[in-house]
């Protein structure tokens, strides 16, 4: 059973020990999140941690749901009643693969990290959230995005309030993380979303993550994408999801799009969301 304490660089990031160094890390993350909804901790994993997660990803990569589809930023269906330029009618090719959460059982390296109490407490403090729960979705609480050569993951908003990702392996070329901070904080802001999709927005920022980096991101409110990839090496990114509403799960439609299936819980809880955003 892989010990989370051997996977995280606890000398650099002592998330398991109270003190000034831990407090300083949290303070910096909070400042970055306040500024643009995104924070990166370089080299959060040890080399052993990165290698262990890479081996786990490779062992279950064949179980990922690979799909090629066209999606809009909200994962909703086309609405012909809207103008053609409306973001809800802007569809882009998506070529991607998600390895669902039920392939990472209790005791596995990725599951141990997600359920590590010191990790959960650290993330909660970084996000300054009093109401903070693991995502209840059995296909999406902790999974791996395995992206191959192609169009990457086009512009979209996340279903959950905040997302924590661990970079495991980069593609040979491409795969930068691009995002427009907080453009949906408080309202849908379709005009600014349209500007991002048109390539005319000055709000887009670009991150080049390296294996072992931890990213904390408020993807519910910031439009973002993974730039197209090139080369035979897949890009592996582990995704840890947390929410304010412990009841919330993804919609059946999104589950079908991302994982190729939906479970009874997705139909039972459909439409019971904590906010009124489109997705």
Give a verbal description of the structure:
The protein is α+β, with helices and mostly antiparallel strands. The chain has one domain (4-268): Jelly Rolls. 27% of the residues lie in helices and 24% in strands. It has eight helices and 14 strands. The protein has helices spanning 4-7, 20-36, 47-60, 109-114, 117-127, 190-198, 252-259, 264-268; strands at residues 38-41, 65-71, 92-99, 133-134, 142-147, 153-156, 162-169, 173-174, 177-180, 205-207, 214-217, 223-226, 229-230, 235-243. The strands form three sheets. Strands 1, 2, 3, 4, 5, 7, 11 and 14 form an eight-stranded antiparallel beta sheet that branches. It has a four-stranded antiparallel beta sheet with strand order 6-12-9-10, with helices on one face. Helix 2 (20-36) crosses helix 5 (117-127). It is globular, with a radius of gyration of 18 Å. The model has no long low-confidence stretch (mean pLDDT 91).
What would the keywords be for this entry?
279 residues, alpha+beta, Jelly Rolls, eight-stranded antiparallel beta sheet, four-stranded antiparallel beta sheet, 8 helices, 14 strands, 27% helix, 24% strand, globular
